[in-house]
Amino acid sequence: MAHKFVNQIEPGEGIDDVYIVRDPILRSTTRGDLYIAMFLVDRTGQLNGRMWQATEAIYKSLPKPGFVHIQGRSELYQNNLQIIINNISIVDAGEVCIGDFLARTDKDTGQMFEEVKKIVGRIKNPHLKALAGEFLADTELMEKFCNTPGGVKLHHNYIGGLLEHTHNMLQVAVAILPLYPNVQADLVLTGIFLHDIGKTEELSYDMAFSYTDSGQLIGHVVKSLLMINQKAEVLRAKGTKIEQSVLDTLGHIILSHHGEYEFGSPKLPATAEAFMVYFIDDLDAKINQVTAAIDNELSDSNWTAWKNALQTKLYTKRIE
Amino acid sequence: MAHKFVNQIEPGEGIDDVYIVRDPILRSTTRGDLYIAMFLVDRTGQLNGRMWQATEAIYKSLPKPGFVHIQGRSELYQNNLQIIINNISIVDAGEVCIGDFLARTDKDTGQMFEEVKKIVGRIKNPHLKALAGEFLADTELMEKFCNTPGGVKLHHNYIGGLLEHTHNMLQVAVAILPLYPNVQADLVLTGIFLHDIGKTEELSYDMAFSYTDSGQLIGHVVKSLLMINQKAEVLRAKGTKIEQSVLDTLGHIILSHHGEYEFGSPKLPATAEAFMVYFIDDLDAKINQVTAAIDNELSDSNWTAWKNALQTKLYTKRIE
Amino acid sequence: MAHKFVNQIEPGEGIDDVYIVRDPILRSTTRGDLYIAMFLVDRTGQLNGRMWQATEAIYKSLPKPGFVHIQGRSELYQNNLQIIINNISIVDAGEVCIGDFLARTDKDTGQMFEEVKKIVGRIKNPHLKALAGEFLADTELMEKFCNTPGGVKLHHNYIGGLLEHTHNMLQVAVAILPLYPNVQADLVLTGIFLHDIGKTEELSYDMAFSYTDSGQLIGHVVKSLLMINQKAEVLRAKGTKIEQSVLDTLGHIILSHHGEYEFGSPKLPATAEAFMVYFIDDLDAKINQVTAAIDNELSDSNWTAWKNALQTKLYTKRIE
Amino acid sequence: MAHKFVNQIEPGEGIDDVYIVRDPILRSTTRGDLYIAMFLVDRTGQLNGRMWQATEAIYKSLPKPGFVHIQGRSELYQNNLQIIINNISIVDAGEVCIGDFLARTDKDTGQMFEEVKKIVGRIKNPHLKALAGEFLADTELMEKFCNTPGGVKLHHNYIGGLLEHTHNMLQVAVAILPLYPNVQADLVLTGIFLHDIGKTEELSYDMAFSYTDSGQLIGHVVKSLLMINQKAEVLRAKGTKIEQSVLDTLGHIILSHHGEYEFGSPKLPATAEAFMVYFIDDLDAKINQVTAAIDNELSDSNWTAWKNALQTKLYTKRIE
Amino acid sequence: MAHKFVNQIEPGEGIDDVYIVRDPILRSTTRGDLYIAMFLVDRTGQLNGRMWQATEAIYKSLPKPGFVHIQGRSELYQNNLQIIINNISIVDAGEVCIGDFLARTDKDTGQMFEEVKKIVGRIKNPHLKALAGEFLADTELMEKFCNTPGGVKLHHNYIGGLLEHTHNMLQVAVAILPLYPNVQADLVLTGIFLHDIGKTEELSYDMAFSYTDSGQLIGHVVKSLLMINQKAEVLRAKGTKIEQSVLDTLGHIILSHHGEYEFGSPKLPATAEAFMVYFIDDLDAKINQVTAAIDNELSDSNWTAWKNALQTKLYTKRIE
Amino acid sequence: MAHKFVNQIEPGEGIDDVYIVRDPILRSTTRGDLYIAMFLVDRTGQLNGRMWQATEAIYKSLPKPGFVHIQGRSELYQNNLQIIINNISIVDAGEVCIGDFLARTDKDTGQMFEEVKKIVGRIKNPHLKALAGEFLADTELMEKFCNTPGGVKLHHNYIGGLLEHTHNMLQVAVAILPLYPNVQADLVLTGIFLHDIGKTEELSYDMAFSYTDSGQLIGHVVKSLLMINQKAEVLRAKGTKIEQSVLDTLGHIILSHHGEYEFGSPKLPATAEAFMVYFIDDLDAKINQVTAAIDNELSDSNWTAWKNALQTKLYTKRIE
After folding, report:
1. Dist CA E121 CA E104 (whole Å)
2. Nearest Cα residue in chain F from A247
3. Could you tell me if C125 and C186 are in contact, meaning their C-beta atoms sit under 8 angstroms apart?
4. Which of A212, A218, A230, A247 has the highest number of chain F CBs within 10 A, making it the mutation to test binding with F?
5. Rounded distance, CA D14 to CA D8, Å?
6. What ipTM goes with this model?
7. pTM reported for the whole predicted model
8. Do A213 and E317 touch (CB under 8 A)?
9. What is the rounded distance in angstroms from the CA atom of residue E85 to the CA atom of residue A211?
10. Is the pLDDT of residue A245 over 80?
11. DSSP state of C94
């Protein structure tokens, strides 16, 4: 049975479906009866939920947050829709269709990953080839790579976003590298493939997009570099030595790919390859962010709301 | 007869060639005799010149700066090479091979301009097509467009640099536009073609690269916009009305293509097309600047000197 | 009959007057009945409106936003005043006293414009005189010039504000120019007269102060320059050539009059005249903004609320 | 006998005049003979001096820096003019015409001071009147006030510059205050009169313009405030109590008159009067700085050299 | 009887206690009856209060803000607790236990002040010793010094916070000065003792922490310097002259102790002692701010909310 | 035989000693004879060297740069001392007393390292104890740790500077940690011990202080983190697992210890321990930098030259 999305519920409907419960609070009415207030959430939004005949035991059993099965009814209260809950029970994350709760790329991740492998397969420098191969061979990591979002808020913020962003950047690189023959293609391609690989450890996305503790303390920029060094160490243990100068030049691309100190890059780009990865990253992220903001704009106006990260409103009207 | 370049002169040679004279000064020796000190310049550098039997009439006749024919001899003085001048006469700029004095793109400008026309020819939107066509039909302006440098100092700073930069940007756009189907290709292509057209009025390059008064007071960003509005006015007078909203959307790309207020953009990018032109411009300029700096580095070190505009040294060593 | 202002309505009054309707929404009650929620607005504020017996046809007929005639009654609901609407009908903007809806300068615009003309009449330089004259002769534009607000939010944000601001700046200039004999008075006076003329195209003020699309894409700084160049072109067509260097020097004043890149000036002031226009503009705007904020402060405190644009609170207490 | 200015000396002249000696060094030639190298300075520039038959006693007797009487001869050495010194003797500063060594305002300081007193005499508020009067009555301080330069480098950097700058600002205020009736004139006039009074303690100008230790540690902004509080204390001891709130409002004008934190103002303007003093100060300083730079430009170009404090070159050409 | 704190009140309790009333407003119900809405506040939070049978006389008698005795009852209204007031009467601040309303250091102020005196007693330089002694002898000021908060919001924002902060900084200085023998200990100790003494005049803390007018106009940085100069003047009048250079060097420490212009320091540190006071101040303030934020965090998350002043969230989890 | 320092050589001395040769150039005189110009350097400065009877073979044999034995004579040429070289031969770095060429801490490195070990020995947390122990046990690395300079230019820029700086910071931490009981001492001590350990790989100091390629591409901040992760990996291989959360919390201290993005920290401090390490680092570095600049000032003035990194001059006069 299809999930009933939060933004499709009308007043007066019976509800019998799974939602994420968030921020439940136990309160007492003026008469002293206990009730639980909470939010019910899926990927289309959230509603207030009220369970009037509640006990402390029920409250304590609730995940904070987590998946729950709700039985009850929708009603309008002071012009806002809310759900009156008769029954609530915990649901195992494994039984849930995660796509109902987290946005997902609308492209084919399998096909995108095949194309990534094909482009990475062009790398000829033996050190970079070995390194990229070691990553491709780590199937557990590659599965994460295909599912991690591109970010929590700004761009490619959906399941598969990291892959989609990396895939698109590789395509841009393949298209323009012939125009810049002095730029070392192998470094650019490896740099793009691995530039955000640390996001697989920085971001968590089981119920919502958020940062891991480790991700917030260290950041994906440095985490990507650590992962590259670990793979190089593994290769060394197997007898394949990655030249230190190659590792440093690649590492420099990773560390400098945000382009400015204030965006968390501890080094500024100092090679043509680092500049190219930085620009392709910024271009792909900004175009994704801008076109998504324009697509999602609902108002009739020719302008979106103010976008703080861009310090402007966006103009939504197309020519002709 | 081939020009004898300044950086090829050895001590003790006879000199009989054309150079640019700069900053001539009339002085008297301790004994009271008059002499003229000056710099002799071509595109490879400059040397001190001394004319010992000078008169105030000769001094007054000299252009400041300008082309002169020199007869004399080179010598070492305190370990520096200088030219002792016996004869000096003014030369008309028309008789001079300007390429000896100003750096020039090493690409074929005719072929590049053909390719620019071909790419611009793809534009389908009738307003933008008419506008671009009006520029292409202005042969005097197009000749300037093919010769103007891309800048005075930072990137593409040679004759033909504006064309080379515009041509390269158009090629990048053609390569990546298919990857971003929401981005309006006609706006991007017209925006790139005209983004720096104001440099034809901002920069002068008869003997050296410098700014015109008008260029320095108004700047090429706004000058480009003025030129677009003038061409639209000409078209209107001929009966072809360019839709105001098309003109404004294109104008916005021009005004915002430096991307940040502090780089002289009076508006920040507010459309996907404006972001794309800004990024392609920055990418092409920076890669040109970085690869030129690396190519021109003479020292054996793995690093160039500090580059102030980039806030870093550049790493010159290639992998493998 | 005098308009009943929103901030004068008491609970329990009958309402029969014109207001601006904004953001109407069609909703259904728990019982399934349709009603329309909306804001009712004039220049003193806004109230919630509710029309309980509504139909989709009524909803669709409403302007979004626009003028409407309301019949109904005020009531307190949860301590907030709201209007219960029995009847609603569209009103033509032409029948409305716009002054009830938009704030207006309390100075005499006719007299101010006469004084502007008198001061501009002092200009002696023939190029600048011709240019200013061409603007003064454009009666349609001059009518806009007398009505446009000085801005949407920060200063002189009322009908006639642009004229009041320009008029005040001209008076300041006339008062201090004798103290700075090296400064070219004609340039300063023309620069002030035209420095914000682009706001006539940047701002719309039919029902509320807002930006036009064209204004937001191009900005009044560059629009002012474009208008000056258009008038110069018109003059040229009539046989009066404005010297290019005069046009550039005046244009430079326009482009640099915000004084800093981050305030949208693509050029920094590079002449004494540009500095003077920038300072007089900033002085008049800031004094207007500060004294208005102090006048409008209602609390008993000696300080206004935090003013973000000034990065401070303002001290409201006068000495003695 | 008129002073022979450094920029008027020709090769081969006999020299018998007073200069400032700076940075003398005792050295020995290859043969072991001692000589003294030094700079000889007046307000038009400096030259190298060499005294070949020198002793350690002569060296030790020299002021570092100070006034000396020089007898000797000018000569050209490697195309640079230098002075060969036969005799050198110390000169008392009292016997020197200081105007030969320090630039001085070309306006009449007596007349300017009379006008300052007249304008300050308009102040009606009894607290501010008493305070200003106490300063005017301090003849020693007022003499310093009439001689102190306006600054070391940027603007009004000549003897009498502080008075000239204050005088001009008062005239501007008198001219524009009638246009801003809400602004409290007495606060503006007192604020201008005393805004830089601390420069009398911050700057020293006996031989060259420089900072006192105290001036460099505390700064004229805070020093001005300290001096106002000291005068208020003196008045209090005489029985005239200056209202604390008047003192704080005036003090706030002083502390905020640089307008921005980064220019050393510990407070941002928070009253209309503080804004007005800040703007008049900035306007008068910048116009002085710009017109002086344009006047002093010697080259034939239409542009001065780059002015770092203004982040631009200045355009020197006048219209018509 | 112990004060009933706002955060301990349950629904349905009788209330008979003292609170601060804030922002009272007189309103009328739909039936036309008058009532007063207000906030009731103590140091643990605030609640809505409603007095239904109100008169304009009662409203006018209320302090805005001030202490009042409330008799009434708590109730839940739309899930929020509010107090229904039957009786309200003004209470004299002298009868109130101020500690119920303002947070207070949990350290012993008497003991801390003794230790401050002991450490200050180590100062040997006679000028600084005399100056510090003059402050210690001002018992009225010292009592304020022991009670003033360290700030309104960021750190040590409780009664006694200034003393606690100064005391802690002195202890840090005593601990590390032996490690830096070149740093002049007497200057550091005097500098720390007096660095924030102006806060006694800048902050008011009778009912809540706020700024005085004088404090907001002048700021504690400059106020501290004024107070030091006043004490030096008092000493001079008694025959003890404080060397000007000592006063300036100490004054410089005070003026520069915020370390950067944008934090309100009109001078940047220019002595080792000024750097040391700046660093110890910043360290003690930030550690206090960070540990307080972590202690006060109530959520189960490993991270606090975003802290704007620190531009980060804080990680609350301890190791092991 | 003691080294003859460059700043002790007088004109006319015989020279027979070891220096570093830098930037040798082969040139020919006017007569066509070859000679070599070069700089001769030790830790006290540099002089010009000229070898007149030179051959291309000699030129090619010279290190660029490297140690050479020079035989020749000093002479004055145009008032500058230079060395006329008769004989030049390469010297092995192993035979050289490196202290003659590189500045060195004047503290006892052996004793400082013992104290570092003692303080690190206090760490009780088993994860941090194991990690620190693994570093201490790496004798090759610890020897580098004792010799590496603290930096190339700003502070502790001498052999042993890294150890001296780390040692001093640990002493400061031990002195103040008891005053901040909430701060986790083990994290602070481990964080300080390892905060700059990456400088052992970032800096080279065989002949002069400079950056390695790897150091310049990656930077010591991230290098320190990589080294910590490598040691943790080594421990894991030996069966000692370092808790990931401990590793991340320590890593965060390393990454954030520059305190601001613009100083190359990719993360801002988010724990009390990170703030403490940042402040102790900054305090020790700045006090070292300031006292060194004051000690090295040679002029009689009370102020040093302008210090760009501090944005001020420094006041050199001590009180009393």
Report:
1. 27
2. F214
3. yes
4. A218
5. 13
6. 0.85
7. 0.88
8. yes
9. 47
10. yes
11. G
